[in-house]
Amino acid sequence: MSQTLEQTKPSQAQDTFPEVAEQGLTTAQVQQLVQQGKTNAVKDETSRSLADIVRANVFTLFNGIIFTAMVLVLITGSWKDAVFGFVIIINTGIGIVTELRAKHTLDKLSILVASDYMVRRDGKDIAVSHNDIVLGDLMWLRSGEQVPADATVLETWGLELDESMITGESRTVRKSVGDTVYSGSTAVSGMALTRITAVGAHSYAAELTAQAKVYKKNISDLNRGINTILKFMTFLVVPLCVLLICTQMNTVGGWAHAFETGQWRQAVVSSVAGVVGMVPEGLVLLTSLNFALAAIRLARKSTLVQDLDSVETLARVDSLNLDKTGTITDGGIAFGSIVALDPADFAVSTAVHSSDFRQPDMAAIRQALMDLAHEENPNGTGLAVLEGLGEQGVKPTVVDHRVPFSSARKWSAIGYDTPVMGIDDSRGVWYMGAPEVLLSALDGDYSKLLEQVNEHANQGNRVLLIMHVRPTSDDALAQRIEADPQIDKTAQPVALVLCSERIRSDAEATLAWFREQGVRCRIISGDNPVTVGAIAAKVRLTGDTKPVAMDARELPSDVHELAQTLEHVDVLGRVLPEQKKAIVQALHTGQHVVAMTGDGVNDTLAIKEADLGIAMGNAAPATKAVAEVVLVNSKFSHLPDVVARGRQVMANMERVASLFLVKTIYSALISFGVVLTAIPYPYLPRHISYIGALTIGAPAFLLALAPNTRRYIPGFLRRVFAFALPCGIATALAVLLAAWFIPDWMGWHVDTNAVDRMSLRSICACVLLFMGMLVLARVARPLNSWRGLLVLGFAAAAAIGISIPFISQFFELHWPTGAVILPAVMAVIAAGILFALSVWLVPKVLPQLFAAVSYVRRTYHRLISRK
């Protein structure tokens, strides 16, 4: 088997490297460049620092309110009434631990295998680490290596790069002398001598990802609603707390008497009871717990959630942008089939009569194709052919003559002097390459054949043409072609070779799930739109309808026009990194919640811009750093689990958030009632801690774990408020009525008599517990399942707890006895009636109230706009 110099150099280069004239930098020059900081070292932070994580979870508005209230209670010495402060520790701890766990996992994923690179210095080839490469270095780039810094090709021996991480193009690229290679690309075959032109933060990939380095904190609709409540309560709490303290001081005989007797402590504790009740601390805690549980469950399925709030975004996604390479396809090429050609389907060369043409046996074509692909350094297509034919039992043989593939020629050739494997049709010269290039060298009309080629290409195939020249009396033909590579004009097109990108086996089923869930999927790629559109059709991106494909170069630049165009487009090809970001921004103008998947540096800007960035586990470190979700094993089929888990958490959280807002509403109303009527606060902070835990916190946590796949729709606060308002009004009225009328009925002196005050608080606590159970039963509907048992179980737990001496004494909760039983029963009956009336009446009034508020808001905005 004869080989050309072009074949032998790469294999030799792996060990000894070819002789070149360049000597490279001297040791003194390298030291000077190192001192100037022109090395390839770059600070690559993959996630937030520990300090950032702690700061974000500790210094929150919620923690500030609860901490202040806890300090006030501790100053009084009543540490039992400060148990609500543990919520700060639990809530903060969950957030920090979960994010640290995500950071640890991400950092492990992002560690690149330390590789040494061969550079030429002082005329010698030496190995240096990635960070020790300096500007101007002569570097050998070999097959399998990732380009560490931008460089220019000085000499090449068949270098071929995979630039999909940078450009999104899945096709490998042959590099010639003078071409630029960018950091982040990977050499898939051949080798080259290059000169480093940009290092560290100045390289192309580093400059592209610099825009994505800033951490982006998601604010969920749920947290936004909670923050709205907290902000409102902040304005309300301070003046109300002052008023409550003044009121409670007066109930114990005034300021002077309170400080003389020490009863100021009880006044402060009572005031804090009103303040703490208004803060939905359990809702904040439950949100963190459920987000954390969702993250843990997803982690078991090799899905890393880096930002807990992104769980809520999962539930709202209605537009999913998919990067083709790495998501729909796995980046590899698969051998498809060989299509034999009939000479009658096209005009033959005028140099030879058509009767002289004879179709070779298919066995001969397969053997020739195997040997054509079996080069020293086959490209991706060649490797796919070798794998595909190898599975069919075809093995490579020794060829007598070879012209290796060249990116400049776009074809390769082999020659057999004798029959191969006993196949007489195998003798002669065989060509393989780009159809348009090979046919352009022949005489005759091959337009019909080119139409056939285009038809296969439009179906998403990569098409190669095989041509054959039968042996003639001139046996030196193959030798001449090897010495002077030319296409013989008498060559006969005999077959088309069809290859395609390897589609993930789970792609079609996953896309079908998203269609059923009402999520609009679009494929965005740097490849040819026709090819991408054909792949989209194969995976049934749009179901039974044909997906609409478009060249991104034709997209309008105006964001609003782009948004309108995108509504009618399913596939976009030739998309630049900046355009991917613009596409996300355009979808945002249409009020879409956008998720973006990707694995390359070219996807980083769009992933950061999207509401939810999803990176593959094999993605570039910068891409994983800005994504909220990382599919560790790069399986597209895990996305439905991700979205379904988010929907479960959020749909259930909306249900149980009503429980917490009820407490906020009745606590605020009770506080106002206490201030206006100057009565002692009807219960203690420890009462609300016990009752809230059994009627809100614990049952809400269990309800939040129930299966639910309903897509979350924005408007959480309004829907929850509509549910909570009637329940909160009824509860507040029930407690206030008991606090107002029972002392007069029973002749109690709650201002001065501690026993009377304790009896009234016990009745009010029982009313509050009863109303809490009614609210829980309403939230848990339907009750003809495990939900009914849940309500009964917590009602029993509350009753049993009060009956246990230790719990009863710690929380100062006692069942009414003796003469207190009658007013307690009457108060509970009245509370039930109030609850029924409020639940029936308030929903009828709320629509008018919301309409009035909306009208006032619209009128206000119109007046402002006129000014």
Automatic annotation (TrEMBL):
GO MF entries: ATP binding; ATP hydrolysis activity
Lineage top rank: taxon: Bacteria
Classification via Pfam families: E1-E2_ATPase, Hydrolase
Transmembrane regions listed in the UniProt entry: 58-76, 82-100, 232-252, 272-296, 656-681, 687-708, 720-742, 758-777, 789-808, 820-842
A GO term from the CC aspect: plasma membrane
Subcellular location: Cell membrane
InterPro entries in the record: ATPase_P-typ_cyto_dom_N, ATPase_P-typ_P_site, ATPase_P-typ_TM_dom_sf, ATPase_P-typ_transduc_dom_A_sf, ATPase_P-type_domA, HAD-like_sf, HAD_sf, P_typ_ATPase
Alphabetized UniProt keyword annotations: Membrane, Translocase, Transmembrane, Transmembrane helix
Domain P-type ATPase A: 118-211
Membrane topology: Multi-pass membrane protein
UniProt protein name: Haloacid dehalogenase
Source organism of the structure: Bifidobacterium dolichotidis
Lineage of origin: Bacteria, Bacillati, Actinomycetota, Actinomycetes, Bifidobacteriales
